[in-house]
Amino acid sequence: MIRILFLISFCSIRLCLEAQQVDSIYFNLYTDSLKKGTHNYINVDGKLSNGKWIPLTAKEIRFSASACKFSGNELIVPADFGADKITIKAVLKSNPNLWLEKTIWIKKKPDPDLPTLDEVMKTKGKEKEKQKPK
């Protein structure tokens, strides 16, 4: 009897979970520009019919771009890429009527150089000196 109740409960919960459909999709980008010579992660979130949000991957989303290639959720922009921007498109595989398109600019300024280990250690040493009671 307990097994039957457990089985019925499990099936009911499973049906409720499967009933949730993605109502809408949104870009949730970590940056406002794409970097050359890197894999740029394109984050797409889906809003379920129950109001909850879930991250979507290339399993659920078909990605395309005006230039460059995708590998999963990552847009690979070569270091020698010459254009100023790329338009990306995300289409929900289970419902192609749900899609997004966004133009993202390519970062122009180089990243600043990271400090060396010696520079970091000197800064840490100076901070400790300032914290010592006099």
How would you characterize this protein structure?
The chain has 134 residues and is of the alpha+beta class. The protein has a domain at 19-108: Sandwich (Immunoglobulin-like). 25% of the residues lie in helices and 37% in strands. It has two helices and ten strands; from the N terminus they run H-E-E-E-E-E-E-E-E-E-E-H. The chain has helices spanning 2-19, 117-131, and strands at 22-27, 33-34, 38-41, 44-48, 53-56, 61-65, 69-71, 74-77, 85-92, 99-106. The strands form three sheets. A four-stranded mixed sheet has the order 2-10-9-6, with no helix packed on it. Strands 1-4-5 form a three-stranded antiparallel sheet, with no helix packed on it. Strand 7 (69-71) and strand 8 form a beta hairpin. It starts with a helix and ends with a helix. The mean pLDDT is 87.
Mean pLDDT: 87
Look at the structure and give the CATH class of the domain at 19-108: Mainly Beta
Structural class: alpha+beta
Biggest sheet: strand arrangement: 2-10-9-6
Total helices: the number is: 2
Looking at the overall shape, the CATH architecture of the domain at 19-108 is: Sandwich
Please state roughly what percent of the residues sit in beta strands, choosing from under 5%, 5-15%, 15-25%, 25-35%, 35-45% or over 45%. Answer: 35-45%
Q: Give the biggest beta sheet.
A: 4 strands, mixed
